[in-house]
Amino acid sequence: QAFFCLLLCVPWGSSCPPSCQCTERAGAKAVLCSSRHLEEIPKDIPKDVVFLKLDTNSITRIPSNAFRHLSHLEELDLSRNAIEKIDRAAFKGVAAGLRTLDLSSNRIRSIPKEALLALNAKLRLANNPWHCECALQEVLWGARLDPDSVQDITCHTAPREEYVGKPLLQVLDAGVNFCSVHQRTTDVAMFITMFGWFTMVIVYVICYVRHNREDACKHMDYLKSLPSTQGHAE
């Protein structure tokens, strides 16, 4: 926070979004858009920005390629917004260079794991109404989470009531594996589907055989009803 305050002392000479402040210090360019009542990410952020603060606004969604043109971006603060949805390709184009990403204190219940696992950035995901599931578990295991905030990733909802209100790390340490539950559910669904198709095939075969048998019986009855050749001869 102190660093960003110091940046305010040196103004930019280049273009800057009208709702933000742009500063520069030792060649590091920053765009500061904190508490600006923004409902979406500004479209005219300079391409050479290094630090971008969008915290304490009313942003609800991070769309695909939202920061793709910001190839120099290293720190991104999206905390204390109203973010509910993050697209799979939300951070495409900045994954390699981004060092920190703050998504804490939003309204995020779930997030595509592809959006975060491709990042090398240190992540802050605390204080969101998370639904504890396999994707979130994989993020916890595979992403670089800020160790100071990982305990604040809490299960707001979960497959079982006993996990609600507990830190996700605590639930996983107790031996719970949401991915195995997901796999079992998938296997059961696949089994039910296959059983349904098998039942349909059996019913079709039975109906087909019965229909052919009825046709054969009718044909035999018809042949029996015909006058014999011997009767005509007499």
From TrEMBL:
Question: Start and end of every LRRNT domain?
Answer: 15-51
List, alphabetically, the InterPro entries matched.
Answer: Leu-rich_rpt, Leu-rich_rpt_typical-subtyp, LRR_dom_sf, LRR_TM_domain-containing, LRRNT
Its topology with respect to the membrane? Single-pass membrane protein
**Any coiled-coil regions, as ranges:** none
Gene3D superfamilies membership: Ribonuclease Inhibitor (3.80.10.10)
Secretion signal span: 1-22
Q: Which family does it belong to?
A: Belongs to the LRRC3 family.
- For this protein, the parts annotated as crossing the membrane are 188-209
Task: Name the UniProt key words of this record, in alphabetical order.
Answer: Leucine-rich repeat, Membrane, Repeat, Signal, Transmembrane, Transmembrane helix
Instruction: Give the top-rank taxon of the lineage listed in the UniProt record for this protein.
Output: Eukaryota
- Pfam families linked: LRR_8, LRRNT
**Per the record's keyword annotation, is Membrane included, yes or no?**
yes
The answer to whether keyword Endoplasmic reticulum applies is no
Q: What is this protein called?
A: Leucine-rich repeat-containing protein 3
Can you cite an annotated GO cellular component?
plasma membrane
Per the UniProt record, the source organism is Podargus strigoides (Tawny frogmouth)
Compartments where located: Membrane
